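Supplementary Methods, section 5.1.

A reviewer requested that the exact input to the structure prediction be made available. We therefore reproduce it here, unchanged from the version used in the analyses.
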Amino acid sequence: MGVIRVEHTKDYTTMSNHHLRNPELSLRAMGLMSKMLALPDDWDYTVAGLAAICKEGRDAVRKALQELEAAGYLVRSQTRAAGTFSTNDYTLFETPPLTENPSTVKPSTEKPMTVKPSTEKPLTENPTQLNNVLNQKTKRQKASAPAWEPEAFERFWKAYPRGEDKAGARREWDLLKPDRELMEIMSAALERAKSTDEWRRGIGIPYAVRWIKNRRWEDRLKEERPTAATNADPSGRRDMQWL
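The structure derived from this sequence is encoded token-by-token as follows.
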């Protein structure tokens, strides 16, 4: 391989070579830090500001900043205003504080809490905020979990004395979403209807889809027969055969 010679010019930047000799840093992190050290102090040190002068996009800049913060070159501190936390200040160190020779000491790999200045939304929350978010998500999931039992439809369908239009009945069942209390009411009403002379003879039994859609369990039956003794307990409650 041929020799690569460097032609120095007057326009150069003086910086520590600590990060350039750190074997734990990627070339992307080394290059971004070198570029930051070459910028004036009043530069817009935000992800958007750095991405504007780099070929890489914001995601690549964020990852490089994360790497520099994890290695100790970029240190974040939170300031106070009127007794409350306000903005995050970032300090870039040419040599990480309290570090040894980079060739012998592995930089910290602890995941940083954030890599963005306060002008942009942080990448991650602090542990307390993260726990609150997870708890709220769990509560939302529990609240969204159906109180009804979709699988109970098959038991209802098996107990219903007429078997036409199962798909329509299932659709109405899913729209109704009966909970345990309503299913007990429906089951008791169905057993009462099945005990009448008309239903026992197969007369006047509506399709299950209509029975559900029209809330026929709320009908007052003209005639009711008590269920057999084996289907009732001493309290008088009917046996819920499909629950």
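Residues 127-144 form the longest helix (18 residues). These observations are discussed further in the main text.
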